[in-house]
Amino acid sequence: MAGSNPTPYYTPTSKQTAATYHSPFLLKRPNLYSLVAVTFLCSAFYFTGLWQNRGSNSVITTSNIVHTTIPCFPSKNTSTNYPTSSKSTQKLDFTTHHSTDDGGAVTPDDSIKIYPPCDIKYSEYTPCEDPERSLKFNRNRLIYRERHCPEKNELLKCRIPAPYGYKNPFKWPISRDLAWYANVPHKELTVEKAVQNWIRYEGDRFRFPGGGTMFPNGADAYIDDIGKLINLNDGSIRTAIDTGCGVASWGAYLLSRNIIAISFAPRDSHEAQVQFALERGVPALIGIIASKRLPYPSRAFDMAHCSRCLIPWGEYDGTYLIEVDRVLRPGGFWILSGPPIRWRKYWKGWARTREDLNAEQNKIEQVAKRLCWKKFVEKDDIAIWQKPYNHHKCTEFRRRVKNPPMCPAQDPDKAWYTKIETCLTPLPEVSNEQDVAGGQLEKWPQRLHATPPRISRGTVNGVTEEDFQKDSQLWKRRVSYYKSVNNQLGQPGRYRNILDMNAFLGGFAANLVDDPVWVMNIVPAEAKVNTLGVIYERGLIGTYQSWCEAMSTYPRTYDLIHADSVFTLYENSRCEMEDIMLELDRILRPEGSVIIRDDVDILIKVKRIADGLNWDSQIIDHEDGPLEREKLLFAVKSYWTAPAAQGS
C-alpha cells in the first residue's frame, strides 16, 4: 500500500499528552482575572467549533470506530475524521495484483458482522435467473427464463467466490479477442460452435475469432456488409441492441465504429455466452423477450439486430416485433439475418422445408407492414427494415388495418416488470410528415452534450435545459475529483466495465466517454423521475433496475461501480442495506473499485458492511470540502478465490 500515515485526529479513544499545550496561564499562580479569561476563551473556541461543524457529522461515537485511533484519508480537502478500514490506515491501493489469495478471510472484529465465503457451487450464481428456480415456472413462450428472483428468506448472506485461478481480464482491446479459461471455465461452446468460429480453447485461454452463426468469416466483415446497405459512419447510428447475442461479437466489433450495442441473451443451454461477452469487455445482460417488456425506454435504439437469434418474430400476432418497434427510434433500422432470410439457398442446411420457411418470412413481412415499417433492402443473407420517422401517414393506414391496434394512453417508457403489449406504441405527434417524432437528434458525438429532445420539449418532469447544463458541469467537476483521488481511474486499461447505479442524466458516464471504458447507466425503478430515455438520447446505454433485487448479470461483471445517493433512495424501503452491498460484492470483480457518495451517517453504516465484506475502504470529504454532509467512500474489493479442487 502506498502513502504515509498522517497524524491522527483526536477521537474519543485517543489521549493528548501533557506536553501538547503550554499556556502562560499554567506557569503562574491563578487569579480571578486569569480564570475568567480562560473560561471565556474556552467557551469561545467551543461555540466556534460547533458553528463551523454545524453541517457535518463532527461527533462520531465509539461504536462507529474500529477500536483504534483513526487517521484521516490523505486528500487536499480532508479535515474531518471518519472510520477507515480496520486493516489499513494508509492510502488505498487501486492497482491490481492478480494473485494475493487469503482464501477470502476477514480479520475478526466483534463489532462488525462478517460475511463468510459462499460454497463454490455459487461461483456463477445469478439469483434472478437461477436455472433450478426457473424450472418452477411456465415453459410456454420461455417465460421460465425471465427474471424470477428469490424470496427474502432465500437470499444468500455470503460472498460469491471467484473460481480457483481467477485472473484479472486482459486489457481492452486485447480482451475483445482473449479471455482466461480460469475465469469462465466452460468449453461447451468451443465444441458446439466450432464450425461457426465463435470461440476457441487455446491452453490457458479462450480466443474469440469474431465469428457467428451467420458470419463465419467474422463480425468485422459482416458489419462491413451491413455498412454497404445503411450508413454506419456518419454518426446517425450510435445505440444498438443485439437480441440473442451469442458471445457478442457483433457488439464487440461495432465499438470501433463508435456504435455501442447492448447485447442480451437468456441463461440457457449455450453455457455462459453472456458471461463470455462481459469477460471480453463488451456490454451485455442476461435477458429474453417473453411476456414482459424489455427493460429499456421507448425510442432508445438507432438499430436493432437479430442474427439467427431464433426468436419467432411472426408468431403471437407479431408481439416480439411490436416490442422491437417500441424500443426502436423513429427512422431506426431492424436487421435480420438467418432463418428465414435467403431460405431458397439454405433451407436444406437448416433442416426445414421450403414451404415452412417461406410462410415464416411472409408472416414477418406482414407484421412489419402493419407496423408501418418499410422494407429498406434485402441483399444476400441480410434483410433490413426501417421504422417510420413519424406516424403521420401511418395513422391513415391504421384506419384500414387495425391489427395490431394503437395502444391507448399509457407510459411507453415504463418497462420494469411491465407486461408486453400487443398494440402499436404511438409516436409523439408531429405537425407534418417531414418531422421526426419526439425531436431530431444530433449526430454522434455532438448528441452527447446537446440538450436531449425529451428535456427541450419539457417531457421530463422537473428537468429543464438549465438543469441539464448545470448537471453536465457538476459531473465534469466530480469526475475530475474522482480521478484526483483514484489516479487509476484515468489510466487506460485499469477499468473497462463500469456500472452507475443511479445515473440520473448520465453525467458520470458522459465524462468518461473519451476513456477506453463503457458505462451501464441504471435508472432505478424507484426513482422519482424516469430519465433513461434522456440517457439514450445522449448516445449512452443503460437499463432499469430495482436494487431491492439482483441484477441480470453474472458475478464479477464490473471493474468499477459508482453509486450516487443509492442508499438514501432505499433508506425507507423493503431493501436491506446489507443485501444491496452483497449484490455489489457479487457483481464486482476481485480488486474492483467502488465509489459511493451519500450522507455521512449512511456512509458510516455502509463502511461497516464493507469491512465485513473484506473490502479496503476509506471515507473522504466531498469535493466542496469538509462542511458538506455528503461524503464519499472509496473502496477496493480484496482478491480471493475458491480453494483448489481436491486432487487437482
Automatic annotation (TrEMBL):
It is a single-pass type II membrane protein. GO terms for cellular component: endoplasmic reticulum membrane; endosome; trans-Golgi network. InterPro entries: Put_SAM_MeTrfase (IPR004159), SAM-dependent_MTases_sf (IPR029063). GO terms for biological process: methylation. The keyword Protease does not apply. It comes from the Eukaryota. Its EC number is 2.1.1.-. Keywords: Glycoprotein, Membrane, Methyltransferase, Signal-anchor, Transferase, Transmembrane, Transmembrane helix. The keyword Glycoprotein applies. It is found in: Endoplasmic reticulum membrane; Membrane. It is an enzyme of class 2 (transferase). Signal peptide: none annotated. GO terms for molecular function: methyltransferase activity. It holds the Pfam family Methyltransf_29. Belongs to the methyltransferase superfamily. This is Methyltransferase.
